[in-house]
Amino acid sequence: MAKEPLPVPTFDTPKAAIARLSLYLRQLEALERDGQSTVASKQLGRLLGLSDAQVRKDLAHFGQFGYPGVGYRVGELQAVLRGLLGLNRPWRAALVGVGNLGRALIGYQGFRERGFHIVALFDRDANLVGRKVGGFAVEPLERMAERVRAESVELCVLAVPADAAQQAADAAVAAGVVGILNFAPVALRLPERVSVVSVDLGLQLEQLVFQVNQRRPTKRSQSAG
Amino acid sequence: MAKEPLPVPTFDTPKAAIARLSLYLRQLEALERDGQSTVASKQLGRLLGLSDAQVRKDLAHFGQFGYPGVGYRVGELQAVLRGLLGLNRPWRAALVGVGNLGRALIGYQGFRERGFHIVALFDRDANLVGRKVGGFAVEPLERMAERVRAESVELCVLAVPADAAQQAADAAVAAGVVGILNFAPVALRLPERVSVVSVDLGLQLEQLVFQVNQRRPTKRSQSAG
Fold first, then answer.
1. What are A117's strand-pairing partners?
2. Quick one: pLDDT at residue B19?
3. For residues B52 and A167, what is the distance between their CA atoms, to the nearest angstrom?
4. How many helices (H) and strands (E) does chain B have?
5. Which end is more exposed in chain B, N or C (fewer Cβ atoms within 10 Å of the end residue's Cβ)?
6. Are the beta carbons of A205 and B181 separated by less than 8 Å?
7. Can you give the residue ranges of every domain in chain B?
8. Between the CA of residue A219 and those of A105, A212, B178, B196, what are the distances in Å?
9. What would the mean pLDDT of B97-122 be, rounded to a whole number?
């Protein structure tokens, strides 16, 4: 799978195109499950609500993957996208914040399936420290640097309340993690070398409500009262 | 705020532009916190990694909001976007699945802040039914239709395991919800009239890993072994 070196994407690649790589990959996986071995940019775009020109442009940022008269080979393009997205190897993550959200994330199948493994748990709550959750003992934030090194952890999943987020992020950065998945509804101040993706679940609900409104622009006034 | 009728967006509006409305809104909120009252499409785009042409095109789907020589008025455009996104009124939601993830979502501040209120809880686990969580008693799926009507619930937040998702979604649809926020890693079969947004946390981690890889394209090989 994708043995050849992949083109290294540059910082000039638009964020939106990067976000779409994950969507292309999921759609290709669905096509493969349906037994389809090639796909035209037009079909791929239609399935994702994009123009075929947009699909070709997005993928062209990373190389030349289409075949004239054939389109993209589903298996091959999947391997390319997995390589680009860093999914061709496992990633080890520490979880900070072992509350309800943290516990849900420890058991989240979608992480393991993609090669993301939570291998260390931290919490500032002394009552939680020492307890076992999902097979791992919860440790104090003070041990993070030592444990991140020992466990070859690169990523941190931050599932703490807003008021604890910056302190936890600072601890993770000091411990040497290079990427943070942030669930706290707060903008983190981080050094340039550390990447962050913030998960905003309110944003997802907004998107849902937009769709709901679109599908019944008139019904609301009819059913009022 | 936004008293005038807003243009009704059509189904032709690209999904990606709709997704960006939420991002524009968040950026405008940040600008307002910083005391900025107007913003040019160029600045708004730069802050979000988009071209100014893209910003103007996205917003032009919904109307004419810019002022020559001024740009957009931060407060006014916020009100427009809130209206478009359906954030100018509260939304009532039922939560199905009162496990760790469900409990985390009940307490999720980002929902309430945006006007999304979870007002009813359901679970298929008889051991959970009757227990109080976050002020609400957990009820069996069988009571969903009755409760959705009584509580004027329009949305359903689905926080159940993959194998329980379709059954729970069917119950929610039968009960009359018109939108589902789905956390289960499974594609739901739903009638055309029901909207769905699926939250894929693995996808967010992929985006993080992509960024991490980008920031140190050569370091990995140096530190190997």
1. A92
2. 76
3. 35
4. 10, 9
5. C
6. yes
7. 15-84, 91-203
8. 38, 11, 12, 18
9. 90
From A90, which residue of chain B is nearest by alpha-carbon distance?
Answer: B209
Chain A residues inside the 8 Å CB shell of B181: 204-205, 208
Partner residue opposite B201 with nearest CB, options A110, A211, A217: A110
Q: How far is it, in rounded angstroms, from Cα A132 to Cα B212?
A: 30
| pLDDT of B225 strictly over 60 | no
- Kindly report the nearest CA distance between residue B140 and chain A, in angstroms: 22
User: Fold for domain B91-203?
Assistant: Rossmann fold (3.40.50)
pTM for the model = 0.75
- Where residue B200 falls among pLDDT bands split at 50, 70, 90? confident
Q: What pLDDT sits at residue B54?
A: 82
**Which chain A residue's Cα is nearest to B87?**
A206
Q: What is the pLDDT of residues A116-167, one digit of tens each?
A: 999 999 999 999 999 999 999 999 999 999 999 999 999 999 999 888 999 9
Q: Do B16 and A50 touch (CB under 8 A)?
A: yes
Give B83-87 contacts, CB < 8 A, sequence gap 24+: B83/B2, B83/B6, B84/A210, B84/B6, B84/B9, B84/B21, B85/A206, B85/A209, B85/A210, B85/B21, B85/B22, B85/B25, B86/A206, B86/A209, B86/A210, B86/A212, B86/A213, B87/A206, B87/A209, B87/B25, B87/B114, B87/B115
The per-residue pLDDT for B4 is: 41
What is the ipTM for the molecules in this complex?
0.79
pLDDT in tens, B159-195: 998 889 999 999 999 999 999 999 987 878 899 999 9
Select from B8, B51, B212, B215 the residue whose CB has the most chain A CBs within 10 Å, as the one to mutate to test that interface: B212
Query: Is there a contact between B187 and A30 if contact means CB atoms under 8 Å apart?
Result: yes
The residue whose two tokens read 């959970």 is B128
- The parts of chain A modelled with pLDDT lower than 70 are 1-16, 216-225
- Chain A residues whose CB is inside 8 A of the B26 CB are 200, 203
Query: B205 and A14 in contact by Cβ < 8 A?
Result: no
Q: How far apart are the first and last CA of chain B?
A: 60
Cα–Cα distance for residue pair B101/B60, rounded to 1 Å: 38
> Which CATH topology does A91-199 take?
Rossmann fold (3.40.50)
Nearest CA in chain B to A98: B100
CA distance A70 to chain B (A): 26
Which residue is it, tokens 């939108």?
Answer: B179
CATH class of the B15-84 domain in this structure: mainly alpha
Write out the E strands in chain B.
38-39, 72-73, 91-96, 116-122, 132-133, 136-139, 155-158, 179-182, 195-198
